[in-house]
Write a structure and sequence with these properties.
The structure is a homodimer. The first copy, chain A, is α+β, with helices and mostly antiparallel strands. Chain A contains 19 helices and 9 strands. Chains A, B: One of its GO terms (molecular function) is malonyl-CoA decarboxylase activity.
Chain lengths: 488, 488
């Protein structure tokens, strides 16, 4: 290959454009090939396929331990991936409802337990060891009785080569279904499977791997495909992300070879970057030995089916330990992170508050303005004034909040190209962003998903940066603001 | 190093002679070093050490999630390994008893459950989804309430670097204590920890590694130290075990690097070996390409704390798959295995039956001999006759069984050097050995531990081999008989 063609190849677009909601088969899809053969009863085929997979699922759950189960599990996995969305849904509901736990057995054990409790009360301390022994026995049995039958399928798949990958695909499908309909039995199954996956993917079982340009193309391809924060456009871009001044680390699991479950990208810098542009350079700004800061600028998960299982926390912890050991001159560990939920939260706040303000203005005297319990002073008086002083040519709106709302939703983020608008918006947006990150909670968790992730990991909010990400996406989700979380 | 010194080094004895019942510290024992310093209150030191470790254990269990827990876990681990046996025992009992589950909470949930059951009976099918939702919720809560508090310590240690190794050492100590005293709470803790370890060490999380002479000495040293079946005497012996005509495979876990949890040794042969001597050659008898049989001649576990967790089954399965792929000319997979419990079982059988026979002979007429329900004809009439025909110089005894007993327990296994005795004993010993392997069960499991292992794995008894292991140990445990289990 000549230099020219290589350059073209390196620049070719690599991100796949898949938007199907079905999890992909990790296995060669032999069933799919079979479906191409002419058949006299094509109309019944989906139903027959469904029944076949349901039968192999049943065998996989109920087969005796010593029987050879590998064929059955392969059958089930291949069959499952050949099913259409509707049949996968049916199958998962069968699994959730018909392979639930044995409630009669649970009740039986509960009665035994209450019986022992009664004995204990009567014996009042005598024979304590005997009573305790009964407790231990029944509690153990109760633990087992509370395991749904479908655990058998999960356990066996997990032990089966390729099975862990099948389970994550299964869960990805379950999450798709639950996003559309709330089915109690399926939600219970999902919560059970999630806990199981969390146990199997315990950080101790994961191998930290530094991803470099020397890794197999099949692995690097995954990095390009799954980079969720700052898309990698081509191989040349990827090569830079893995080159001098940068690091990339992934967690590999023995059962899912050649595919990191999660990976993190690190830039070695003089200081904590305040904009994403400082990080996405083509040539390293300083020699690595002068770096004092390791900046995490992207963390991406590759398995939709592992949603809610926090692998990132341990990945960050281990990367920090590793970098500290290998580069003692680096003492600062921080992120430059997006704030994905800020504008969505702000717009809804502005909309509701500007409506409340309007109602108040009409129905009440200004002295009584604070009367409404839900009314909030989102803008400071001088900010309100600056916005209302703007000419109607720029923006319409009966109050500052409505005007802010209109500016932020203007076409192509025009406000971000106007120096006067930027100077008016900067202070209120930064203040409201700080409030959003620090104070807005839902069930005790930070409302912003990325903030919640880092704060739960023990990081702190270090700095909020104005115009840190001027990309379309950055302006859209957080008015271009980014945040540094610091890890100690 | 000259050739001579190298030869000496390679032949030096390597097996350690440790017989302490304490699990070893996997960490540098800093506390031990501290203990060497002069101190004014040496008498109270063990008590203070105990209290310190108990406190760090308490912190490790009860600390808030986001707090930095690594220091506490390191503290606990180091502290634990610095404790004497008695204090470890005290600590483990504190853990088992004071960090058990919350029975009040379990009772509360049980009452809720019974309440929902009542509702369900009343509603008779209406509102089914609502009732189901309640079941799912309470069952989930019940599952969590049934987790003892000490699970927190286990979970956190498992996620902590080096923690899995600490947990296996902890369990090794627990097993030592339970071997001496049966404590219900500690047994419950052990059964819980065993199940946890089994989940974390799921075969999917283990990496199959072919152990070769190119592996680090620190890993090879472990093979020498832990080979349980046919001791490796020195490095030269080890080099042969890893050389041409042989294979060695181990299961590695990411959290216990450089130390296989279990390993298996394989010899590549023309036919299934009938004696262990055919396997322990110095030079390969055939070129590898002529082999048609992979013979598993040794499988050893390195972690006493993983007793009862069947990693071997999956190791054998994966090795078979691997060998089949790499060497398609190999189609037979079998073991040559010891029968560790045979002679112990046989001697007790012979003793009880010869006593029963004696009593019968005195009290009853010979026609009524079959009257005793426990009486068994262990020997065939011609075997009985051959034994009774032996001169009293050779062996004493009032009946064949007593004579057999006396022969088998004779000093230095003299019977094994006498051609006439060998020919008399061969038939009854082989027949009784077959019976022992195939028919003697305890709770549905084969009485012999090795037989139980292979039969549970799905293997079959292929052949019983006379004088297959003439070593002191072989004669002692199974009268020199070995067995081939065949894997399909």
């Amino acid at each position: 290959m000549n230099k020219r063609s290589l350059a073209v190849l390196l620049r070719a677009r690599m991100r796949p454009n898949n938007s199907t909601k079905l999890a992909f088969s990790p296995l060669p899809n032999r069933s799919g090939a079979r479906a191409m053969q002419p058949s006299s009863d094509n109309a019944n085929k989906p139903q027959k396929d469904f029944e076949h997979v349901r039968d192999s699922m049943h065998s996989a759950i109920s087969m005796n331990k010593t029987e050879v189960i590998d064929t059955v599990l392969n059958d089930f996995s291949e069959g499952y991936f050949s099913l259409c969305y509707e049949n996968r849904r049916r199958l998962l509901l069968v699994l959730a409802k018909e392979y639930d736990l044995n409630r009669t057995q649970v009740c039986e054990l509960i009665k035994q337990y209450l019986g022992v409790l009664g004995e204990e009360a009567q014996s009042a301390g005598h024979e304590e060891d005997g009573v305790l022994g009964s407790f231990y026995r029944i509690e153990r049995n109760l633990r087992h009785a509370l395991k749904p039958m479908y655990e058998g399928l999960f356990e066996r798949l997990n032990m089966h080569p390729g099975g862990l990958k099948v389970l994550t695909s299964l869960r990805a499908d379950i999450l798709s279904i639950l996003a559309e309909e709330n089915i109690a039995s399926l939600r219970a199954l999902d919560s059970y499977l999630k806990e199981k996956l969390g146990t199997w993917l315990s950080p101790a079982a994961l191998e930290l791997h530094q991803i470099t340009w020397d890794d197999p193309a099949s692995l690097l391809e995954k990095i390009v495909a799954y980079e969720a924060v700052h898309p990698i456009s081509n191989l040349l871009d990827l090569k830079r992300r893995l080159g001098v001044g940068r690091r990339c680390f992934g967690y590999l699991h023995a059962a899912i070879p050649g595919e990191p479950l999660i990976f993190i990208e690190v830039a070695l810098l003089k200081n904590v970057a305040q904009t994403i542009q400082e990080v996405l350079w083509d040539d390293p700004p300083i020699p690595e030995c002068e770096a004092t800061c390791a900046l995490f600028y992207s963390i991406s998960s590759t398995q939709r089916g592992l949603a809610g299982i926090n692998l990132g926390k341990f990945l960050i912890k281990r990367v920090i330990t590793l970098v500290k050991r290998d580069m003692p001159h680096i003492s600062t560990f921080a992120t430059i992170s997006p704030i994905p939920g800020f504008i969505q939260w702000l717009l809804s706040k502005l909309a509701s508050q500007s409506k409340l303000a309007e109602v108040n203005d009409i129905s009440q005297s200004s002295a009584d303005r604070s009367g409404s319990a839900f009314r909030e002073n989102i803008l400071e008086p001088e900010e309100e004034k600056a916005l209302m002083d703007l000419s109607e040519e720029f923006v319409a709106g009966k109050n500052g909040m409505e005007r802010m709302l209109n500016l932020l939703t203007s076409k192509n983020h025009e406000w971000s190209n106007s120096a006067p608008l930027l100077s008016i918006l900067k202070t209120p947006l930064l203040r409201l962003c700080a409030r959003y990150l620090l104070q807005e909670k839902k069930r005790g968790k930070a409302l912003d998903s990325v903030a919640n992730f880092h704060l739960q990991n023990g990081a702190m909010i270090e700095r909020i940066n104005w115009m840190a990400d001027r990309s379309e996406n950055g302006l859209h989700q957080s008015a271009g603001i980014m945040v540094n979380y610091a890890y100690r």
